[in-house]
């Protein structure tokens, strides 16, 4: 029964995430065509500050609250009541911090107002995120996924109206606030079915809880530095247009990164189960996942290298074709992100999170310093190059620590056949690049998978074993 509920949640969440990704790309298309490069750059800057607020005040509350309420005989009302109150107070402080912060930022009034609206959206977002642990414990994350999908539909509808009736930049940002308030209201109501908590001001419990959660909060801040500081640095040093050009490509990559996270999330319990007790089974599963990642990365990189202009034009409009080279660079970064997720998860499974935190902190520092050097000279291309180098560094360092402490490195058995299939796909794209985009994309993908089958690079039995093990 539990296995079926887990499988159902995985399937439902996967479908909801795919639909949300499609809606996110649709909304990007509306926004880029309406606001242009400068306006989209302003929009991306506001979203970067939304992430900034989440990073500085994450405090690790969600992860630790989920863990604590999942323990046997846990006092759920006390835990959720205290954590929810703590989250409300910490997130509400953003509403005070944001206007003060705006006084020192070199942005237009429009962007500063957007940052304040984003601060309000963060209060709603962070509050409902804490409650997600209730649904995770009760294996009802489908309710969260459905709520978020409906919220995304609402956001896209507001953006559509804003574009159609020319409501302006503020209306675009207000769509984010509407999305977060809607999601919070629904999640709060649904959570009452499982835990009827109330606000709780137990200062001693807060101290105890924050002591446990603070390391996770530090990790969240490091993650922000690692993924979003480039946009803020670019906005300050080069202005809105450069941010718009960079983020047109970055948003596409950002919306694909959930795939490796989703896949690795399915096998995390298996890694944790076998890594200490059955090294042979662990290595077998890890090798399969590494191979699947390589199978996905090869056509993604090959296809984007040749079809970058068309992809950008379809999603963002012809005004953003200049972002094509940025996308070519960032697709290489995405390839490294796949394997960064892979090694990060192995280290977490092996209880080596402290070493992982040190690696990510070093990479975050590396990222910021290199961005400060390259962005003034190379603008958005410099930011993209730094992203590639940073993701590569993460893979090298986490791969080394995995090899040294876990005694594992991927088996590259049939990777040569996969690479060969990718080369065939690339040659097809090169010689037939004048074909219709959709015909070219479908035909090249079919050629890639036919070559995989013909060379026996992967078998149906192999794929079935991964799906079966994951569920």
Number of distinct helices: 16
Number of discrete domains: 2
Helix/strand order: HHHHHHHHHHHHHHHH
Fraction in beta strands = under 5%
What does the overall shape look like? globular
N-to-C terminal Cα separation, in Å?
12 Å
DSSP E strands, number? 0
Give helix % range.
over 70%
Radius of gyration: 23 Å
Going by helix content, strand content and strand pairing, the class is mainly alpha
**Poorly predicted segments:** none
On the 0 to 100 scale, the average pLDDT is 86
Largest beta sheet, briefly? none
In short:
The protein has 471 residues and is mostly helical. 85% of the residues lie in helices and 0% in strands.
List the helices and strands and how they pair.
Layout lengths: L1 H55 L4 H9 L6 H27 L6 H29 L3 H24 L4 H23 L11 H25 L1 H10 L1 H15 L3 H17 L4 H38 L7 H26 L3 H54 L8 H17 L5 H18 L5 H11 L1
Helix pairs in contact: 1-4, 1-5, 1-7, 1-8, 1-9, 2-3, 2-4, 3-4, 4-6, 5-6, 7-13, 8-9, 8-13, 9-12, 9-13, 10-11, 10-12, 11-12, 11-14, 11-15, 12-13, 14-15
Structure description:
The chain is mainly alpha-helical. Helix content is 85%, strand content 0%. The protein folds into two domains: 1-227, no CATH class; 236-471, no CATH class. It is built from 16 helices and no strands. The longest helix has 55 residues, at 2-56. The model has no long low-confidence stretch (mean pLDDT 86).
């Amino acid at each position: 029964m539990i296995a079926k509920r887990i499988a159902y949640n995985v399937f439902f969440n996967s479908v909801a995430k795919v639909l949300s990704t499609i809606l996110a790309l649709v909304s990007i298309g509306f926004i880029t065509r309406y606001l242009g490069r400068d306006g989209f750059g302003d929009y991306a800057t506001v979203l970067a500050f939304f992430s900034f607020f989440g990073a500085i005040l994450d405090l690790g509350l969600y992860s630790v609250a989920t863990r604590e309420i999942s323990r046997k005989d846990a006092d759920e009302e006390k835990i959720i009541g205290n954590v929810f109150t703590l989250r409300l107070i910490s997130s509400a402080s953003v509403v005070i911090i944001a206007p003060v912060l705006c006084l020192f930022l070199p942005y237009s009034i429009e962007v500063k107002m957007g940052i304040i609206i984003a601060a309000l959206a963060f209060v709603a977002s962070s509050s409902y995120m804490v409650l997600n642990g209730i649904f995770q414990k009760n294996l009802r994350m489908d309710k969260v996924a459905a709520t978020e999908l409906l919220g995304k539909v609402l956001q896209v509808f507001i953006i559509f109206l804003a574009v159609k009736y020319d409501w302006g930049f503020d209306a675009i940002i207000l769509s984010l606030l509407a999305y977060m308030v809607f999601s919070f209201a629904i999640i709060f109501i649904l959570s009452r079915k499982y835990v009827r908590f109330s606000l709780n001001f137990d200062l001693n419990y807060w101290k105890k809880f924050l002591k446990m959660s603070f390391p996770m909060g530090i990790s969240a801040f490091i993650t922000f530095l690692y993924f979003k500081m480039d946009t803020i640095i670019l906005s300050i040093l080069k202005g809105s247009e450069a941010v718009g050009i960079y983020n047109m490509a970055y948003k596409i990559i950002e919306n694909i990164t959930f795939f490796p996270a989703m896949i690795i999330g399915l096998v995390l319990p298996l890694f944790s189960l076998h890594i200490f007790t059955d090294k042979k089974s662990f290595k077998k599963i890890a090798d399969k996942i590494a191979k699947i990642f390589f199978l996905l990365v090869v056509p993604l990189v090959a296809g984007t290298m040749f079809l970058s202009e068309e992809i950008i034009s379809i999603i963002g409009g012809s005004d953003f074709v200049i972002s094509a080279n940025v996308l070519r660079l960032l697709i290489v970064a995405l390839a490294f992100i796949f394997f960064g997720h892979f090694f990060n998860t192995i280290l977490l499974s092996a209880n080596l999170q402290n070493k992982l935190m040190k690696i990510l902190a070093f990479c975050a520092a590396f990222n910021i310093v290199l961005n400060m050097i390259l962005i003034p000279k190379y603008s958005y291309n410099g930011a993209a190059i730094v992203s590639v180098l940073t993701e590569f560094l993460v893979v090298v360092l986490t791969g080394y620590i995995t090899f040294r402490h876990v005694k594992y490195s991927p088996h590259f058995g049939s990777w040569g056949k996969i690479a060969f299939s990718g080369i065939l796909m690339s040659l097809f794209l090169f010689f037939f690049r004048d074909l219709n985009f959709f015909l070219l994309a479908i035909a090249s993908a079919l050629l890639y998978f036919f070559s995989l089958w013909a060379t026996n690079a992967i078998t149906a039995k192999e794929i079935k074993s991964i799906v079966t093990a994951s569920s």
